[in-house]
Amino acid sequence: MHVPPHPPRRVVVAGAGMVGLATAWFLQEHGAEVTVLDRSDVGAGASWGNAGYLTPVMAVPLPEPGLLREGLRGLLDPASPLHVTPRPTPATLAFLLRFAARSTSGTWRAGLAALTPLDRGALAAFDELAAGGVAAPTHEAPVLIGFPDPGDDAGLRHELAAVRAAGQDVRLTAMADVGPPFSERIRSVLRLDGQRHVDPGRFLSALADSVRSRGGRIVAGARVRAVRFGPAGLQVDTWTDRPEPADAVVLATGAWLPELARTVGVRLPVQAGRGYSFSAAADRPLPQPVYLPAARVALTPLGERVRVAGTMEIADRDAPFDGRRVAAIVRSVAPYLRGVDLADVRDPWVGPRPLTPDGLPLIGPTRMPGVHVAGGHGMWGVTLGPVTGKLLARTVMTSHPVPELGPFDPLRFGSPGRRPG
């Protein structure tokens, strides 16, 4: 690996979502001068309309046998919580085949072991941001998980037992009483303590303000075209502005990561798994997050309203908003809720979650000296963004490998130019 003679002074981060902004903030902790470029604006990708769960014990690899079976059913059912576009591209089909090959219990457990160090450091990284001046709160509250039949909770209990065995603090209890916002159709509720939630839009705005107040630049509407070596070293070319000189570069562009990552030797595909959300009126403020596994829908407090988020649509990242997916979420959760007015839907949103075939993110150096990537977190970019940024900033600024990031080598699976060892 190329080792620079001194820590990089100027670092350009491509992407102003949770992962990119958190990386920029922690780079500033090491003394870097940071510029963040985004093709649109702060949080415009998969971050803004996220459910806002900060639930590390639920941040597990997506490929697993049960999800694969559900996905096969979803091929024929456009209302399924997991749905594949009727006309997938060859690249999407190749991704799904690789995903299916890794949807085994053994691979899932290996992925869980890899993610556990990130999960264990996730909430502490949010605390570091707060202590450093990021003026947006995180809220500690249990997650209530509702099931139509008592026996339906066996799968989640088994999964969380594996998470506990891997080294996380899992506090799960059964609730004796079932009340609002659950309807009488929910007959079993589990309470998961020790987790948090956040308003992603508010938090990202505060995180961006903190980066700026510490001397960083955030440039909206700056779509990165290329990263290359120029006469003075690394430079980042955009489609609209002059090149940005850099001593190091971090690519954190979410579902758009392949456009740039392929040019620096990263061949592992990243597929958009599009999630939809909206806000709904409520009879009273929701005191804690709620999850309905039967519908794969999450509800989060959002002031006087409730954010409702769900679905996994395997489709092109730039496909237009599909209102049928919002209607499908409403139909799927309506029987299980009371006190939530699903006729009062506002702020509909879609964002492309960046998925990898093995369910593990891509974090670390690439073939091009000084260029790193951070992405592919799937549904857990908000939860794991700050801890990712903290660990990657250490790698960028010291050129020393961080053991916790070893399993997330962007050049894994025999990509061309894979580093030896």
UniProtKB/TrEMBL annotation:
Report keywords, A-Z.
Oxidoreductase
Q: Which GO terms describe its cellular component?
A: cytoplasm
This protein's species is: Pseudonocardia hierapolitana
Domain of life according to the entry = Bacteria
Alphabetized Pfam families for the sequence: DAO
Q: Which GO terms describe its molecular function?
A: oxidoreductase activity
- Tell me the InterPro entries matching this sequence: FAD-dep_OxRdtase, FAD/NAD-bd_sf
What is the official name of this protein in its record? D-amino acid dehydrogenase small subunit
The FAD dependent oxidoreductase domain sits at: 10-394
State if Nucleotide-binding is listed as a keyword.
no
